[in-house]
Design brief:
Elements: E1 9-12, H1 20-26, E2 32-35, H2 38-42, H3 45-51, E3 60-62, H4 71-83, E4 88-93, H5 95-107, H6 114-119, E5 131-135, E6 147-150, E7 159-162, E8 170-173, H7 183-202, H8 208-230, H9 235-252, H10 258-265, H11 273-288, H12 296-303, H13 312-326, H14 343-352, H15 365-376
Parallel strand pairs: 1-8, 2-3, 2-4, 4-5, 5-8
Antiparallel strand pairs: 6-7
Helix pairs in contact: 4-5, 7-8, 7-9, 7-11, 8-9, 10-11, 10-14, 11-13, 11-15, 12-13, 14-15
The chain binds fe (ii) ion.
């Protein structure tokens, strides 16, 4: 059975930011809290956002969201929200900021602690603070998804926050704000989008409209990621990557799989999510080769411009590994600086991940062990 969920409203294009003022007005948000990170303030990107706001709006700013979203970061933002009597949230940043906003919109209106909500998403009701997202990276899809991860401590595995009520009300995707994204982050976040498209497409949920979107997103990443990495000022490539990221976010509505299970397993270190998933992708695609029934792998290979045949899983794996190398990304998790060696625990964590629930084939312990050894390097 296909279960098709609505996406939030989206404004997409260069210049889409001009929609922010009328949207705030329409939603009667006159005291918004902008949450962001210090990098975006220091590089003057946040200033461009402030310039887009009308003068009659009383804006508050919290710019201390950390590189990975934490309970502490969200609680600090809540203090500012309450102190300034804010009546809406604008998440301006990458995945960490945008996921933090999902947690913030809940605790701003619920009389329970964040840890309670992270332990039990059923406590989240529709009574949440208004939330508008403006992504400054192209890859996480967090601008439209209804889930996210919040770390209790920076180096501890994230708790999931998952509820249709945390889904942002509106996403303003203006590729202008991604123009200053450094090459390495452009590469890693862009490849994260590819994993969302591929894992969403392969998921055991049926949703033909999103499957078409996932293949389109796959095509965009493969055709534009090199251009965006080589020349950050290539506006066409930036726009295509922003759209690929959005389509990756839509693909997440179908669920993810072992690639993201592995990212959680290795997520007990402050390693970049996008880099982790693209490093893990080839081993998972090799695991799928010859195992997935039907022509799903062939359709992905075709979207990637590869020969679509019975070896498509291996062909996709090779193409991703080659792309990673070309973009200057690492080929193993060890190369990223991960030094833990307890394979037994890694296998256990991977097997227990909720991401397996939507996997087309759920690797057993022995299969995960083989995948983990390859990903670790
Ligand atoms: Fe991801």
């Amino acid at each position: 059975m296909a279960s098709i969920l609505n996406f939030p409203q989206i404004h997409f294009d260069f210049g889409a930011i001009k929609e922010l003022a009328p949207e705030l007005n329409k939603r009667q948000i006159d005291r918004p809290l902008i949450i962001t990170d210090q990098g975006l303030v220091e590089h003057g990107v946040c200033e461009k956002l402030l310039d887009a706001l009308p003068s009659n709006i009383k804006v508050s700013l919290f710019d201390k969201i950390p590189e990975n979203p934490t309970i502490f970061g969200v609680e600090q933002a809540l203090e500012v929200y309450k102190k300034n009597n804010c009546n809406g949230i604008i998440g301006f940043g990458g995945g960490s900021v945008l996921d933090s906003g999902k947690a913030l919109r809940v605790i701003a209106t619920h009389d329970v602690s964040l840890i309670d909500i992270l332990n039990d998403s059923d406590k989240i009701t529709a009574n949440v603070a208004p939330y508008i997202t403006i992504p400054t990276t192209a890859g996480t899809g967090a601008e439209i998804t209804f889930g996210g991860g919040i770390h209790p401590e920076p180096n501890a595995p994230a708790f999931g926050i998952r509820s249709i009520h945390v889904r942002p009300d509106l996403a303003i995707c203006d590729p202008e704000y991604t123009m200053t994204l450094p090459a390495r982050l452009t590469a890693a976040t862009g490849m994260d989008a590819l994993t969302h498209c591929v894992e969403g497409f392969l998921s055991n949920n049926s949703n033909p409209p999103i499957e078409a979107i996932a293949l389109d997103g796959t095509w965009r990443v493969i055709n534009y990621i090199d251009k965006a990495v080589i020349d950050g000022n290539d506006r066409e490539a930036r726009s295509q990557m922003s759209m690929a990221a959005l389509e990756g976010g839509m693909s997440i509505y179908m669920g993810l799989g072992p690639i993201h299970a592995l990212s959680m397993t290795f997520g007990d270190s402050p390693l970049h999510h996008g880099t982790l998933v693209t490093v893990a992708m080839p081993a998972v695609m090799r695991f799928y080769n010859h195992k997935i029934k039907g022509n799903a792998l062939e359709r992905i290979a075709s979207a990637m411009g590869l020969t679509a045949d019975k070896e498509s899983g291996n062909r996709i794996a090779d193409a991703v590994a080659e792309t990673n190398a070309r973009l200057g990304l690492p080929s193993t998790v060890k190369e990223m600086g991960y030094d833990k060696t307890n394979i037994e625990k890694m296998v256990r964590d991977s097997c227990e991940s909720h991401f397996n629930m939507t996997a087309p084939i759920r690797p057993n312990g022995e299969e995960y062990e083989k995948i983990i050894i390859e990903v670790l390097g």
